[in-house]
# Entry
Amino acid sequence: MSSTIITREGTTVTVKLCVRLDLASSPEVREEIEPYLKDAQNLIFDFTDSDFISSAGLRLLLYAGKKVLSRDGNVRLIHVNETVMNTLKLVNFTEVFDVEDNP
# Structure
């Protein structure tokens, strides 16, 4: 099973994470999204089906974010649960990325 579902609408790429974003899954996710990072102006990570993020997952977000933000793009993290939100706040990623918690 793929660890992501990736959709593109123009220059907006949405990455729906279907796994916990950790040391085991991050390399596969990076490989899957890499081709989309070349020209993405807007990058959305959807955490609806992902309930955990480790330091490896944080590094992946930072890597992808730097590519998009270097082109004056935008990175959004949506449907973030409380556990992931607490981790993002702890490392100040909420200051770098637009983050929306679970409705």
In short: The chain has one domain: 4-101.
